[in-house]
Amino acid sequence: MKNKKILFISHDASRSGAPILLLNLAEILIKNRITVEFLLKTGGPLEKDFKLKGQTYIVKSANGPTLFQRIINKPSSIRRSKYKIENLPWHTYDYILSNTITNGDILPQIRLKYNGPIISYIHELEMSTYYATEPYFLNQLIKTSNWFLVPSKVVKKHLIENLSIENEKIDILQYYIPAQSCKDYPIEKGSKSEFTVGCIGTAEWRKGTDLFIQVALIILKKSPNANIRFVWKGVLNTGSEREKLLYDINKAGLTGEIILLPSSENVKDFYESIDVLFLSSREDPYPLAVLEAADYSVPTICFKNAGGAQEFIEESGGGLTVNYLDLNEAAENIINYSVEERRRFETGKKAKAFLCSTHQNENYIIDQFENIISKVLNQIDI
């Protein structure tokens, strides 16, 4: 696999899970003497990070809805942005890896120019598939892709059952994240009197920001004297979504109890400040937040049947799962964690240990990647 050259396609360069995880993967491939180049459909805050890792091309496009705009508020008919793919050194790429389910609007053009393997790395589940792309472009992606990678069993199941993709053409490639925490967590926070429940991500329906607020209300009603606060990081400083959340917080009498923080490059302070991650997502394929929390030995509580976080928790023992949308069960488990410090610490250690042996193990991820690619190159007939 050494001395290969890959073209990575990213839907954008936003500071969000898919582009960040693509950059992480590229980093360890480069260490293993694999050349990477990037094709971005649109730019964004991480554009400079892509350019630092390899030659980066940006597709010229008409102004259209971003992926987040599509997911948060899908119009009745998404305008089909017209992309023009410029001449790239197509013959130099050993294979192409297209990141996310949204690239069906450019892959047919690329297929006309490139005869080699195209592998699509799909991170989306049912609702995000519906919101992020159109049926026509989804069909084009499936038609032009030779193979599919997914981060979790639940996404693989979605591809098989809902998109009719053959099981034999799907492989699980786990995410790689570099170690960010510099201490041996968990920290014994003897002087810390308050217990902090946190979540991080774009404030929208799939992420369950409204459910986070409802669970906070239940907890404060059940334990009015408990010193528990709630922090959500990832809410825009302005905009209708923020105003809706502040409206609910005020009407519920939770002003001062729930803190809304904007997204930023620095997540270290956030994870060091929280005691438990309550992943309130209705749907999340394999959330980066759970891995980042584990890096700081912070356990996670999530809903069952809501995505890949359940897989991480069940395999690592690094948290708890509760029945889907059972807000009272979620609240009870958060309260229990707030008073069972030793149990919480031990659970966080399990999350960290599992993370270190898998998602932070460069050799483990590289071996997984190389085995998959070798199989793909041996089996497909271009």
Task: Walk me through what this model shows.
This protein has 382 residues and is of the alpha/beta class. The chain folds into 2 domains: 5-177 and 361-379, Glycogen Phosphorylase B (Rossmann fold), CATH 3.40.50.2000; 195-357, Glycogen Phosphorylase B (Rossmann fold, 3-Layer(aba) Sandwich), CATH 3.40.50. It has helices spanning 17-31, 47-53, 67-72, 107-113, 126-132, 135-144, 153-161, 209-222, 240-251, 268-273, 288-295, 309-316, 327-339, 341-357, 362-379, and strands spanning 5-10, 35-40, 56-58, 60-61, 83-84, 95-99, 118-121, 147-150, 170-172, 195-200, 228-233, 258-261, 276-279, 300-303, 319-322. The strands form 3 sheets. It has a 7-stranded parallel sheet with strand order 3-2-1-6-7-8-9, with helices on both faces. It starts with a strand and ends with a helix.
- The low-pLDDT segments are 66-79
CATH class of the largest domain: Alpha Beta
SSE pattern: EHEHEEHEEHEHHEHEEHEHEHEHEHEHHH
Number of helices: 15
**Tally of strands:** 15
CATH second-level architecture of the largest domain: 3-Layer(aba) Sandwich
CATH topology of the largest domain: Rossmann fold
Gyration radius over CA:
21 Å
Strand content is: 15-25%
* Structural domain count: 2
How much helix is in the residues?
40-55%
| Structural class estimated from helices and strands | alpha/beta
Mean pLDDT: 90
Identify the overall geometry: globular
Largest sheet: 7 strands, parallel
| Ends distance | 19 Å
Q: Tell me the CATH superfamily of the largest domain.
A: Glycogen Phosphorylase B
Strand order of the largest sheet: 3-2-1-6-7-8-9
